[in-house]
Amino acid sequence: MTGPHTAASRLPTVAGIVVVVASALAATYLVGQGGWINNNNSSAVGTTSKTKGVSDSGPHSIGYVGCSNTADAVTGYYLVPNGGLFWQPYPTGGGSLDLWTSESSRYWSLFDQQLQRYGQPSKVWIEICERAAAPLDFAMVQEMFAILRQRAPSATYYISPLNSYSPSNICAITGPNGVADATDLANEAVSKGLALAGPTIGPLTSQKLCQICVTRTRMERAY
Prior knowledge:
Strand content: 5-15%
Shape: globular
Largest sheet: 4 strands, parallel
Distance between the termini: 19 Å
Strand order of the largest sheet: 1-2-3-5
Structural class: alpha/beta
Order of helices and strands: HHEHHEHEEHEEH
Helix content: 40-55%
Radius of gyration: 18 Å
CATH architecture: 3-Layer(aba) Sandwich
Oligomer: single chain
């Protein structure tokens, strides 16, 4: 069948392919630095990860805290050969770190659902995401860790800044300082023993973002 709606009906698939490519790109960095995934070092937490009821490196034994970029990276992880170690992606879109500093945050409710599904994780990956409208400080990082310790007290924590961008000013949501701020905070968390250094994700290029934006614009116009 041909007609004015034929191309439009294909656009969601095209958009999906572009997002998959971006996710797989992030997964390349995630898996490429896989030493941390298989590392059983527990020096960054108060207790060992080999506690009763905690899987040391079994299926779905790695949880995560973050935003849509974090979920995209984990989505990409499941699109390439993997060991099934991460939790399946869950909806952390919009989850900048300031929104993980309250017990009543919906993001912790989602995290709790993952705990119920998979049990206590042996590792938790934290990706610091910042919104330009809500700059972060280290007190927020400490507040997030205080809540995380209550929920996953026996896990080893790994922390990363938001993925970089190329060029660096193409993400309006995080603003011109978001990646640098996240990097400084992640480094401070590591230096103060709150977590071990996690993988460095990025860069996400303007070409990938433009492909996504153009495709979505065409979809909106089609409908």
